[in-house]
């Protein structure tokens, strides 16, 4: 346990001192800040363009829900892509650079190595998204004068289950594939498969596929039961980490 804590501390310090502290938080906070503003002024932007195109565009007055939907859409699409791309080299990069050999010669097991990687990156992801959600809520309240907290918290919480599952899959792929680009490509392929599966009702109801569109459905007030998607998504994250430990244990350093 002490070696796990020491390596986890090293991972967290690396996150704070390197580019990792800027990329994912920068992306999330950018969309958290711009989402409510874009939602508020989209009708004016469309009306400004309409005279040049000859089109007549009628857009209903924006509400807080439009700002929340912007946040949910950016989480599901752009932030998911960012998680896959940023963490695709979490294990393979250290193995290829030789730093994994250095830490594993100390009393650190490969299970602790992979586990600490997942916990450190997961803490970064959860902290970043919670701060982003708080920023979205505050700016939505400032711009629209109304910002109920519960639907935003529910949509963000469901996405975090999805995000931590995707992180587990990416850690697994990074343990199996030597190239970060290869792991990222496979991760994007997995995301596409889940997105395609979201058009099949049984998959949406009983598998992690139901987490793909859940944040948007919650905000639109049409969300169904999410017990099975949450359970299976959490189970898939755990299975992915167990698979990553197994795969990494069999790799030569």
From TrEMBL:
Respond yes or no to whether keyword Transmembrane helix is given for this record: yes
Q: Which GO terms describe its cellular component?
A: plasma membrane
Write down the Pfam families for this protein, in alphabetical order: ABC2_membrane_2
Organism domain of life: Bacteria
Its name, as the record gives it, is Uncharacterized protein
Any idea which GO molecular function terms this record carries?
Answer: ABC-type transporter activity
Keywords, ordered alphabetically: Membrane, Transmembrane, Transmembrane helix
Transmembrane spans: 21-39, 71-91, 123-144, 150-173, 185-206, 226-248
């Amino acid at each position: 346990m002490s070696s796990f804590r020491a390596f986890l501390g090293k991972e967290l310090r690396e996150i704070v001192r390197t580019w990792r502290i800027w990329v994912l938080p920068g992306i999330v906070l950018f969309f958290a800040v711009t989402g409510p503003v874009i939602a508020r002024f989209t009708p004016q932007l469309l009306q400004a363009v309409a005279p040049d195109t000859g089109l007549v565009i009628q857009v209903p007055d924006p509400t807080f829900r439009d700002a929340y939907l912007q946040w949910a859409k950016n989480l599901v699409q752009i932030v998911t892509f960012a998680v896959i791309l940023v963490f695709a080299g979490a294990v393979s990069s250290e193995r290829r650079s030789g730093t994994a050999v250095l830490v594993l010669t100390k009393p650190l097991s490969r299970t602790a190595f992979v586990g600490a990687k997942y916990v450190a990156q997961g803490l970064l992801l959860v902290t970043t998204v919670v701060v982003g959600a708080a920023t979205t809520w505050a700016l939505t309240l400032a711009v629209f004068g109304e910002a109920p907290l519960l639907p935003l918290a529910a949509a963000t919480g469901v996405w975090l289950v999805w995000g931590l599952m995707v992180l587990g899959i990416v850690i697994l792929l990074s343990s199996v594939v030597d190239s970060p680009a290869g792991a990222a490509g496979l991760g994007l392929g997995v995301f596409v498969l889940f997105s395609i599966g979201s058009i099949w009702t049984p998959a949406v109801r009983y598998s992690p596929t139901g987490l793909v569109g859940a944040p948007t459905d919650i905000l639109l007030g049409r969300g169904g039961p999410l017990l099975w998607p949450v359970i299976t998504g959490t189970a898939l994250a755990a299975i992915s980490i167990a698979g990553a430990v197994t795969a990494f244990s069999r790799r030569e350093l």
